[in-house]
Amino acid sequence: MSSEEKVAIVTGASQGIGAGIVQRFLTKGYRVVACSRKIATKSQPNLIEIAGDISQPETASRVIETARERFGRVDTLVNNAGAFLPKPFTEYTESEFATLLQVNLGGFFHVSQRAIGEMLRQASGHIVNITSSLVAEQPLKSVPAALTAITKGGVNAITRALAIEYADKGIRVNAVAPGAIRTPMHSSDTHVFLAALHPMGRMGDIHDVVDAVLYLENAPFITGEILHVDGGANAGR
Fold it and tell me: Distance between CA 190 and CA 178 in Å, rounded?
């Protein structure tokens, strides 16, 4: 199948990393379904935008059904939607606990389950999960974020589990674990602090993560991989 025939779904697609992934897929000839809570319609060819909360089952169903009805298939799912809430563990509220579980795990679960159902029917597919390096695998004393860590760490674990479960079914499952990336999520007054968290001494850029996603997309013998895009932070400090 040529890239012109492939269909990608990207969640958390309204800005930052998600928007960058959408645009790169479009330039590669993919047809794309982009989902976010709020998303502006750009009226680009081969792009369908869906506003909705991907952590809700009905939104996940709508995304998959739209891809199937408009484009006929689902080849790639990029689970980019997520929430980050740093604070001392004892200060988290029940509401914040529920929100992080719903967004970081529910947002992964519902759409991934439905996407895999489509991929099984065509005996091929690829899922890429955007997780976290600094929070999930290299916790920082200066940035306590235990609930983000437990949810993103869970996505890392299920990336490997699903990769093994579906390795003989033509479906690959990988993840990209970024460090701190220069996006609207981080205000400019935090950039010096965040840059210092990486051995390379700088923050990452959106294209660094997008490049990693496309690398995995074009690497058919790689599955179960968590690719760190973090300026060396996962290796140590």
Answer: 17
Residue 237 predicted with pLDDT over 80: no
- Strands, sheet with 76-79, edge to edge from the N-terminal-most edge strand: 47-51, 31-36, 7-11, 76-79, 125-130, 171-178, 226-229
Please spell the DSSP secondary structure of 119-170, one letter per residue. HHHHT-EEEEEE--STTTTS-BTTB--HHHHHHHHHHHHHHHHHHHHTGGGT
| Residue-wise pLDDT tens digits, 103-152 | 999 999 999 999 999 999 999 999 999 999 888 888 888 889 999 999 99
Predicted TM-score (pTM) of this structure: 0.95
CA distance 185 to 167: 35
Angle at 151 between CA 65 and CA 106, to 5 degrees: 25
- Count of domains for the chain: 1
CATH at 8: 3.40.50.720
pLDDT band at 4 (very low <50, low <70, confident <90, very high): low
Element (H, E) at 58: helix 57-71
Structural contact between residues 148 and 84, judged by C-beta atoms closer than 8 angstroms:
yes
Q: What is the average pLDDT score of the chain?
A: 94
State pLDDT tens for residues 188-199.
Answer: 889 999 999 999
Question: Residue 173 pairs with which residues in a beta bridge?
Answer: 127
Distance of CA 143 to the CA centre of its chain: 21
CA–CA gap between residue 218 and residue 6 (Å, rounded):
12
DSSP classification of residue 5: G
Domain of 184, in residue numbers: 3-235
